[in-house]
Amino acid sequence: MAFLELRDLKKSYRSPEGEIQTVLDVEHFELGASEQVAIEGRSGSGKTTFLNLIAGILRPETGSVRLDGEEVSGLSEARRDAFRARNIGYVFQTFNLLGGYTALENVMLGMAFGPGIDRSFARALLVGLGLEDRLNHRPSQMSIGQQQRVALARALANRPRLVLADEPTGNLDPHHAGEALRLIRELCGEHEAALLLVSHDRDVLSSFDRVETFAELNRVAVL
């Protein structure tokens, strides 16, 4: 049995004109436990919607999202939120850090929605990412690369079994992009978490053994 399995997954939105537009139609996708997979696709093709359905942020009209044998898509919103906090780490393209809180507080706040706050582990994650001298800095006091590392620490704070990364290097220069990718992959390996990363960056994609093309996964033709 696959660790993550998607079947007949569909998502639609209503346009401003009132028309129903299907943006995602994925017949089948599988990811193994601890496997690291990249998905290639251009902006606007539905990749973020795809990740949000897996994470339970969105609910599909039809289809199944099964993670480690549990059907996620059939859960209520509250139970999906709880399941995500326990099992899934999400690295957003825009980081989504809270500006009024320090790096350490941002990571601990992420823990509050999962098994519970573990200050020593939050600190250890940040120190391991080279942020020992930035623990009490707010996002505005840190570089983009440092913010990216805080976002990565937050995604791993609850020891998730699956990490989703949405264009995690999109806002970084080539040097910091390479460093961020290395850290994401190394930390997922250390924590035995599966990784599903979406990107259109050829340098990022070339480092993965398995790369799926989103245009082939999604049966909806995106203009």
Describe the protein's architecture and organization:
- The chain has 223 residues and is α/β, with parallel strands linked by helices.
- The protein has one domain (35-61, 74-212): Rossmann fold (3-Layer(aba) Sandwich).
- It is built from eight helices and nine strands.
- The chain has helices at residues 47-55, 77-87, 103-111, 119-128, 144-156, 174-190, 202-205, 214-217, and strands at residues 4-14, 20-31, 36-40, 62-67, 70-71, 88-91, 162-166, 194-199, 210-213.
- It is globular.
- The termini are far apart.
Feature tags:
4-stranded antiparallel sheet, alpha/beta, 223 residues, 9 strands, 25% strand, 5-stranded parallel sheet
Task: Give a short summary of the structure.
This protein is an alpha/beta fold and 223 residues long. It is built from 8 helices and 9 strands. The protein has helices at 47-55, 77-87, 103-111, 119-128, 144-156, 174-190, 202-205, 214-217; strands at 4-14, 20-31, 36-40, 62-67, 70-71, 88-91, 162-166, 194-199, 210-213.
Annotated CATH architecture: 3-Layer(aba) Sandwich
Radius of gyration: 17 Å
Described by the principal axes of the CA atoms, the overall outline is globular
Write down the CATH topology. Rossmann fold
Structural class: alpha/beta
How much β-strand is present in the residues? 15-25%
Side-by-side strand order of the widest sheet: 6-7-8-3-9
Distance between the termini: 35 Å
CATH superfamily: P-loop containing nucleotide triphosphate hydrolases
User: Mean of the pLDDT scores?
Assistant: 91
SSE order, as H and E?
A: EEEHEEHEHHHEHEHEH
The top level CATH class name: Alpha Beta
Count of alpha and pi helical runs = 8
Q: Main β-sheet: number of strands, strand sense, barrel status?
A: 5 strands, parallel
Count of individual domains: 1
In the predicted model, the low-confidence regions spanning at least 5 consecutive residues are: none
